[in-house]
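Input/output pair, single chain:
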Amino acid sequence: MKKQNKKATKIMIIILLLIVLGFIAYVFVNSRHQNQNKFVNIDNSATSTKNVNFDPLNFTYTLEDEKVTLVNGISTTDVVPGSAEKLETSVFDKPAVGDLNGDKKNDSALLLVQDSGGTGLFYYLVAVVSDVGVVKNTNSIFIGDRIDPVAVSIENEKIKLSYVDRNVGDPMTADPTVKTTKMFEVKNNVLAEVK
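Output:
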């Protein structure tokens, strides 16, 4: 009778240990899953958040080595601290959405325009890519001054940018007349033109 009680006690202890270990594994897996789905707004550093559901209109980009934080697609800063002259950065049209790195997750491409109140309107192409659950901002590429943008789209893991530019040698006062289409891709978090 004592042998049967000892055997039953051992079985109960083993069952309890399995239940406790199963509960601990469930809590661990569930907390990891919840942390991966949290929304955290991010800056433009190469590693920022574990969320892929970011908002490219509320994001920090780097243009000409300067960080620009958009709020609802616009950033306004002093050209010189305390001055009346402002530098406005905004999104042309709307962000293009699609897969740029083959992971079947949405990435974004945007054409940003900077206006300091002078005659120039400077256009930059940027991309934001999800990479193994981390949202990464790429470098920016200067596209031109006072061009006439048409569209930005993502097709076959590449960014297609269409705009109207001037002929080489035309003065900046001339109207853009040359239809231009360029393709760009992101490799190892670097945005580059496809030649």
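Residues 31-51 have pLDDT under 50 and may be disordered. Residues 60-194 form one domain.
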